[in-house]
Each structure stands twice: as C-alpha cells, then as structure tokens.
Amino acid sequence: MSSTIFPGSTLGIIGINRNGVAMIAATKKAGFNVGVYVDHSQPDITKMADFTIDGAYNDKQKLTEFGEACDAIIYQTPNIDSTVIRFLGQYAAIPQGINGLEIVQDRLMERAFLDQININIAPYVTVVGLDDVYQSIDSIGYPALLKPIQRGIGEQSMMIKRSSDITRAADFIDTGTYLLESWIDHTSEYTLTAACTKDDVEIFPLAQLEYTEDRKLISVASPAKVNDDMLEEMQRIIKSVAASLQYTGVFSVNFYVTSTGTLYVKNIELGLTSIANVYDNTTNVDQYEQQLRASVGMPLHVIRQLQTALLMIIRNYQAIAIKRQWLLKNNWKFRFFNNSNTDDPEGILGFVWVTGDADLEALRNQVDDTEVWNKPLPTSDTEEASKSIDEEQEE
C-alpha cells in the first residue's frame, strides 16, 4: 500500500460472510466509511455499511462503480477470484495484495510454495483422469483425498479408502487437474493465526480444533497446550509464510499432528475465519482490529493473552438446549446470527465463548455437563462418506 488511509476515508469489503458484521463494526468504530460488494443480497450482514453494491463478480460496470467509491478494498475471505481483485486494483488500493491470494486459491501453487520454504506437507500428485488415479494410488497409499486444484465456494473433496472407491471418482472428476493427496491419520488439529505487515508479524495464541466425524467444527480451544519444541516450530512456520507470501493482513496456518508427534501443514487461509473468533474474548485485540490496522497502515497491536476460552459452535438443532444455558451460565458469552438458515438443522446459529482463568479441561467438563454438544443430530439422513470431507474451515 502506497500510503496510510485515515479515518473519514472509505474502506471497501468484498467476499463477505457472517464475520462481515464484526469487520464492518470495527471499521465504522475506527471512523471509516464502509462500502460492501456482494453477489447476492445479504441485508442482515451489510445493513451497517454506508453503501452496498449488489452485482455479479464478472460485472465490470458495477465493480468499477465499487472501486471508484473506495479508497482501499479488502477481501474478507479468499473465495473471490484474484482476477476480480486485480481489476479493482485499477481504482483503489489493495492492501492485502494479490500474490498470496493467487497462491492459496491454487492447491498446486500452495504446495509448491510450502515446499519451497521447507514445510512438511502430505505427499501428493496431480491427476487429470481415472487412469492417473489408478497409476498414482500405490505411491500415495490409502486412504487418499481427491481434490480440485482450484479452491472455490461449495467444493468438496472425495475420500478414497480402497481400490473399489476409485471407480466412483468418475462422477467426481470433471475437466481440469486434480490433486491426489495422502490422508494424514492424525490425533489433533491446530490453527495458528497471525497478522502481518511488511515490517511486523503478531501471532495469536495457538488454537486447538475439534470436529465431528463428518468434519463439522464443534469447538476451538485457546490457548492450546503443546510441547515447547512443537510450538516453536509452528511459530517458525507462520513467520516463514508471512515473510514469503507477499501478503498484508490476518491469515492462518492449519496443522495436523500425528500420534507420533509429527507435524504437517494442512493449508493456509487468508482473511478472517470463524476459528479466530475465539480471540474476541481471550486476547487484548481481535482479528478484525488487526485486519483493519494492517489495511490502513497502522502498526499492529501487540497481542497479549487475557484468559482461556472454548469457542463452541451452536447449530440450529441445538437451539432449545442452548436457551437453558443462556439463563444459567455467568461465564458464557453468546453471539447469534439473524441470517441463520433455520431449514438446515446443522446450519450455524451462533457462537458461545466458555471462558475461564487457565484450565481448559475444567471448561471442557463444564460444556460436557450441559450435554448440549453430546447429543447427535436428530435425523436419519447422512451424506455419503466419500463426500463428507469439508476441506475449507469456513462453512
């Protein structure tokens, strides 16, 4: 970014989701005007913005209108094609840059980038059809994941557990190149989130993730406990990514840890995530303020841990059970979303932060005692296991 952007200027946001409400609020609180570009109307998210432009991502006339109305534009998630951001760059500053976006949107480029900076990732090969899968599976091993090279909204990955699964890949593989990657059998998953500028990197405390068997996020615990050597390696990795990615703003690196203590990098995520919402009530600065500070040229806030918390994901089918906790728990903080799709029982209704001084295990026991998250989804319909792996953290 060529210059600092001061309050009174207009910051545009594109690629917005439910976290956009908090990003808009943080930007308005700091004295900036906010413009939002969406490809479909989302009034519950955008109502706090000064203006909203609703148009397709290939509508150059509306994109031009948006770009000319903004002093700088950020993408809240990496789901906006980099060509759109490059086009907007003709009219407004793009503080986050485009290089990092192009890398994370292409799985092959991302893995080449991680290889280049000596980071441990799962073995993989590229395939373009069933014949390639049959020829490559022996070197990759079972189970394996078949993924499109290009990341995108709503995409899915296919799990191949045995040779008979490969024939079903014929319906999964479309035109283009795919990635066949070893599935890392792991015992734990972690996320490390940081904010970076050209001159500084500030790292949030480590977060541990818990998922259901079909890859629905249950909880985020922070600060997570790992041995000192592993934490140092995670911090080294995120600093290496920050130094090489040519990106300004908030980003995360997701990790697998195996039963033998081997650390693998799963992927890089740019922008604001539901996972990093755990810091809203655990640190002295959240992801939204750090993203704003990086975007407008302010120095990053030094991050300090204030308390321990579990961020629990509330889904629609848990609505009745959670109401009782609303009345009982004095150390729980709630956030509900007005735009939740109530027709989907697994749709996200909101978040709850279960907070305490230091003992994560005590917080987990408190959550378990409520039985809100112990009860299964009340439905008999399940998706095919072969398509149950949700590669992206955001839903």
Automatic annotation (TrEMBL):
Residues 384-395 have a biased composition (Basic and acidic residues). Keywords: ATP-binding, Manganese, Nucleotide-binding, Purine biosynthesis. Residues 371-395 are annotated as: Disordered. It holds the Pfam family ATP-grasp. Pathway: Purine metabolism. It comes from the Bacteria. InterPro entries: ATP-grasp, ATP-grasp_carboxylate-amine, ATP_grasp_subdomain_1, PreATP-grasp_dom_sf, PurT/PurK_preATP-grasp. Its cofactor is Mg(2+); Mn(2+). Residues 111-296 form the ATP-grasp domain. This is ATP-grasp domain-containing protein.
